[in-house]
Design goal:
Elements (H helix, E strand, L loop, with lengths): L15 H8 L19 H9 L3 E6 L2 E5 L1 H7 L26 H15 L1 E9 L5 E13 L2 E10 L1 H22 L4 E6 L2 E5 L1 H7 L3 H4 L10 H15 L7 E7 L5 E13 L2 E10 L1 H46 L4 H29 L7 E3 L1 H13 L6 E7 L6 E3 L1 H18 L5 E12 L13 E10 L29 H11 L3 E7 L3 E9 L21 E5 L3 H13 L3 E5 L2 H10 L6 E5 L7 H11 L5 E5 L7 H7 L3 E4 L4 H18 L1
Parallel strand pairs: 12-14, 18-19, 18-20, 20-21, 21-22
Antiparallel strand pairs: 1-2, 1-5, 3-4, 4-5, 6-7, 6-10, 8-9, 9-10, 11-13, 14-15, 15-17, 16-17
Helix pairs in contact: 9-10, 11-12, 12-13, 15-16
Length: 672
């Protein structure tokens, strides 16, 4: 039978013995048992029946024979005569929610109650003013004097049904929101994903079974796992940490997904858990990197004049001293002095090219501890030649300003953007550019310490100018990308927006104060790193003297001849070749005849990387030094994959080359 919520109870019988116990009258006989509708033996029962807050009714032969006040009130009756004599179907809609006719269903329920003794189910009642409402019915059979009297209790469950409906609607709304959300929504408990929405499967490329109950760290980028784990355990310990932060996921194909997560602690099935929403920002990050690269190239254009000026000075020094070496018959000491100047100029050119390549490249370098003060000095030196001569540059750079965890290229970019903006503001008049950096200690309560900053030591970088200032009406828009007050062709308006993005990425702060006609001051606060600056290892100045045989390959004859002469001077036996294919053939004929290979990267016929790959297939233990004039010619990952031992940027100093070869040969000898 399709009736909701039925519960079975044994039949309830009322015999003479029980009636005697209830009433206290020991002289009752079966033939003198009173009328069951008005039991004189128990006035207490009658009082309870009439005044119970639950609706109570009695049925005999399928008709109501009595009811209490609560039932009359619920049905909207003025007296019992309105209910007595009616069948349950008479005060019900024709059909119940189960789709059965009320009259048929009522008879079946009473028949089942006779068999089982008691039933509990839900029903729909209709009042005398035609209001329909749900009730919970308890129907019990009481055998009395050979008759079966039905005792029924009603409870109005309208509020419960409304709450149930509202809960179902709420659950459905949340289900729709979660299932159609554009973010990954998941619950993690004990390090495992116990709930996730369809977006997780779509973005990560896994099936439902592969995500459900999987360890959460399975989907985190290995380089970000330590940071995410540390934040999780700190949150579990009750520390007050930011709920919103960024890290990378890895999809099934191994591709990186850049995103931002928002985490809250909840209770899930009685146990602590974390509810997280992860937003995919990969496309946004790609656009940001493109914007950053475009802004870098704009800045390179700004520096072009200064770069050309520096290169011309370098070339003038190289050419001038070289000409004097050729034209004049110079004493050895004088010739050595001139050559030292040529070498010094060459190293300046090398450093300048390195700066330009690092600044213009698209790939982002990992952060490392850097001394900002030294980067400021280098940048200002580069900028000085490109800024108008009417602008005076004053600096106050504290050697104790500390170290920050940063990408040196981005620090370079911050300084260059701020200084070029300041120079533009002073282009029509003489002016002064002040650049300073110092260490400051920001404690709680300090007005410069905002909610998203942690108390502690900071570097304060200040760039101030005496220019025209910023119009207060445009001040709210100065960090907007592509917003600029410069004339067409003089800038895209990305400088300050890029600076703002870098500072925020480093959990720092940028403040700008400006008055028209009185100049502008920009203060940047960057958190200090409690450590020392990364430094290059100190190398010995002693040259090596050896007898090993080295194969040198370079398609530029002058460079090939130079490297051959240098290595022979160091005591090595050298075979020098301009063709990579011929070099490979020579190596194939005598693989054990060479102790080391030095090759250029960019060559016709076969690149240095391809040559190295062929050589290592023939003799895997061969140490190879790959030289290049362009950092993006091959990635460090590719160099490592190929098994190349050293990867250096041209030009390579003789001492550096000597120590590198000596180290490789010693390592190979130990392993061999």
């Amino acid at each position: 039978m399709n009736v909701p919520k039925k519960y079975k109870q044994p039949p309830l019988e009322l015999d003479i013995r029980e009636a005697e116990e209830i009433s206290g009258n020991k002289n009752l006989q079966k033939d003198t048992y009173p009328d069951p509708l008005r039991p004189e033996i128990d006035e207490t029962f009658h009082v309870l029946f009439e005044n119970s807050p639950d609706c109570m009714l009695l049925l005999d032969g399928g008709k109501y024979i009595d009811c209490n006040k609560a039932a009359l009130k619920l049905m909207g009756c003025s007296g019992k005569e309105q209910l007595i004599g009616l069948h349950p179907a008479d005060i019900s809609p024709e059909f119940q929610p189960c789709g059965r006719r009320s009259s048929e269903l009522a008879e079946e329920l009473m028949a089942e109650a006779l068999q089982e003794g008691s039933l509990k189910f839900e029903w729909i009642r209709r009042t005398f003013n035609n209001r329909e409402f749900p009730i919970e019915v308890l129907l019990t059979v009481i055998p009395v004097k050979g008759k079966n009297i039905f005792y029924t209790v009603w409870r109005d469950i309208s509020d419960y049904k409304e709450a149930q409906r509202a809960l179902q609607e709420s659950e459905e709304k949340y289900r729709l929101l979660v299932n159609h959300a554009n973010d990954i929504i998941f619950i993690a408990q004990d390090g495992r994903v116990v709930f996730h929405n369809p977006k997780a499967e779509e973005l990560l490329g896994y099936t439902t079974e592969e995500v459900k109950n999987a360890p959460f760290d399975k989907f985190i980028h290995p380089d970000d796992l330590a940071m995410v784990t540390d934040r999780h355990f700190r949150r579990q310990r009750g520390e007050d940490i930011d709920n919103v932060y960024s890290f990378r996921l890895i999809d099934r194909r191994g591709a990186e997904i850049w995103g931002e997560i928002n985490v809250v602690t909840i209770m899930w099935q009685g146990q602590p858990a974390t509810l997280s929403a992860y937003r995919d920002l990969t496309r946004q990050r790609t656009l940001e990197l493109q914007l950053l690269q475009a802004q870098k190239m704009e800045a390179i254009g700004t520096l072009a004049g200064g770069i050309a000026h520096d290169f011309n000075n370098i070339l003038a020094s190289i050419n001038g001293f070289t000409e004097m070496m050729i034209w004049k018959d110079l004493p050895r000491d004088t010739a050595k002095k001139y050559l030292e100047q040529v070498l010094k100029a060459g190293n300046r050119a090398k450093d300048l090219v390195k700066q330009i390549l690092e600044f213009s490249r698209q790939t982002k370098r990992e952060r490392k501890p850097v001394a900002t003060a030294s980067i400021i000095k280098e940048t200002l030196k580069l900028l000085r030649a490109s800024l108008p001569s009417n602008i005076q540059i004053d600096t106050e750079i504290s050697p104790a300003s500390g170290v920050v965890m940063a990408d040196p290229v981005q620090i370079h970019q911050i300084i260059m953007n701020l200084c070029t903006n300041a120079a533009h503001a002073m282009r029509n008049d003489n002016g002064r550019l002040d650049v300073s950096i110092k260490a400051v200690d920001l404690r709680r309560g300090d007005p410069h310490l905002t909610a998203d900053m942690q108390p502690g030591k900071y570097q304060k970088l200040t760039v101030a100018d005496t220019g025209e200032g910023i119009d207060p009406r445009i001040m709210p828009r100065i960090f907007d990308p592509f917003f600029t007050t410069k004339p067409t062709g003089e800038g895209t308006g990305m400088g300050l927006s890029v600076v703002y993005g870098i500072v925020k990425e480093y959990q720092g702060k940028i403040l700008i104060q400006s008055k028209q006609g009185q100049g502008t001051t920009v203060d940047i606060y960057l958190p200090c790193f409690e450590g020392s600056e990364d430094s290059e290892p100190v190398v010995s100045s002693a040259f090596s003297r050896a007898n090993e045989r080295i194969l040198v390959v370079d398609d530029e004859p002058a460079i090939l001849e130079m490297n051959k002469e240098r290595l022979q001077y160091l005591g090595y036996r050298v075979m020098a070749m301009t063709s990579s294919q011929k070099a490979l053939k020579v190596f194939q004929e005598d693989p054990d005849g060479f102790d080391l290979v030095v090759t250029d990267m960019t060559m016709p016929e076969m690149s240095g990387a391809q040559l190295a790959e062929h050589i290592l297939r023939i003799r895997p233990q061969t140490p190879i030094v790959l030289c290049t004039g362009f950092t993006d010619a091959i990635s460090p990952e590719e160099v490592k994959r190929l098994g190349i031992r050293e990867f250096v940027m041209k030009p390579v100093a003789m001492e550096e080359l000597s120590l590198m070869i000596l180290k490789l040969l010693e390592t190979t000898g130990e392993n061999g």
